[in-house]
Amino acid sequence: MVEKSVLFISYDGMTDPLGQSQVLPYLAGLSKLGYRFTLLSCEKPERYAQHKAIIEEITREHNIHWQPISFTARPPVLAKYYDIYRLKQKAIALHRQKKFALIHARSYVSAAIGMELKQKFGIKFLFDMRGFWVDERVDGGAWNLQNPFYRYAYQQYKKKEANYIAQSDAIISLTEAGKREMQTWPSYGKAPIQVIPCSADFNLFGLVTPAQKALSRTSLGIKSDALVISYLGSVGAWYLLDEMLALFKEVKKVYPQAVFLFITPEPAEEILAPARKLGLNPADFIIRSATRKEVPVFTASSDINLFFIKQSYSKIASSPTKLGEILAMGLPVVCNSRVGDVAEIVANTNSGVAIDDFSPESYKKVVAKIPELLKKNGAAIRSRAIDYYTLDNAIQKYAQVYSYLLPEPGKKVDAFLKTVG
């Protein structure tokens, strides 16, 4: 049916891990509901050469018409504008051929194209926001507003952001906190905002059993009586390594047998160097890189998972994928508030502790709660996390937005509007 023909635009590549985990599963689920997708993405040449066949198989299986273009890396800045131009021209050509009823634009670069096609052809425009990208550039240190060039870029992109919000027919937010903030912006009109956090693969990240825990510890050389604190993922600008190490130092005072497991692609020395500065023993650290399938195997050795994220304005719209994966495994967590809906989710799932600051007093409170954390019921944590993080629920929420934007003749949308507020 022509009225269910959708163009999905992503500046991120499908051959990137993010495309395979946070785009294709949604489209595959929606295609089963009768939506016919054309997928326009920007692919990095090396990844494209390596993973092209895999993506072609997935898209062919789910009747998704994949239209990749190559990602341009050089020269910086100009390359992005060149890619946007090529994406726009390709999108226009595809629309003239297929007459799309909806443009689903993932993040800001794609939104520029989606908005222009709406204005040019009258197509419905869904802005899948994926967080406050413009403010993330500042909060993450990529754009220093003391520099006139970056200050100008920030001002221009905030104007574009306001236009995307004003022109969209519906908006996807990763968090309730982000939704509430957007609704205070002068640019926000009446477009419904659906909250869909980053999903977790509950099949891959299964509930940890005692046998799996013991086997994982044996494979990693961890003693059966050790207290294992784990961290999952890259260690970069957003993740507070020094603060996590400071907490671990407090843990060691009460639990001398504790070890800190890092499942990360980062070189070991990037973790061990600051650990030494705090007087921590490198022997108490286990640092492993892992394939996606190995991640839950290694994580199964954990007693508690820990992550601290930089608190900033932009992070209220952030949904850490790792939280859903950890809760799917039934593991208790220690994290921090003022990051998306993290504190609320941890409270509602009764899965751990979310501290408000990184003071010595807060660290001591966490250590005091460890006995309570170790008694948490893993199956109960996993069960309570399902409503937040399963792929099926995310697909259902997307389907509600699609039904609102592309209603069947005579179908009312009042119920959906009431659910999103």
Architecture overview:
With 421 residues, the protein is α/β, with parallel strands linked by helices. The protein folds into 2 domains: 2-199 and 391-420, Rossmann fold (3-Layer(aba) Sandwich); 210-389, Rossmann fold (3-Layer(aba) Sandwich), CATH 3.40.50. It is 49% helix and 15% strand. It has a 7-stranded parallel beta sheet, with helices on both faces. A 6-stranded parallel beta sheet has the order 10-9-8-11-12-13, sandwiched between helices. It starts with a strand and ends with a helix.
Layout of helices and strands, plus pairs?
Layout (H helix, E strand, L loop, with lengths): L4 E6 L6 H6 L1 H8 L4 E8 L1 H17 L3 E6 L7 H21 L3 E5 H15 L2 E5 L4 H7 L8 H20 L2 E4 L2 H7 L10 E3 L14 H11 L7 E5 L8 H14 L4 E5 L5 H9 L7 E4 L5 H6 L4 E3 L14 H8 L4 E4 L5 H7 L3 E4 L4 H15 L3 H12 L1 H15 L8 H7 L1
Parallel strand pairs: 1-2, 1-4, 2-3, 4-5, 5-6, 6-7, 8-9, 8-11, 9-10, 11-12, 12-13
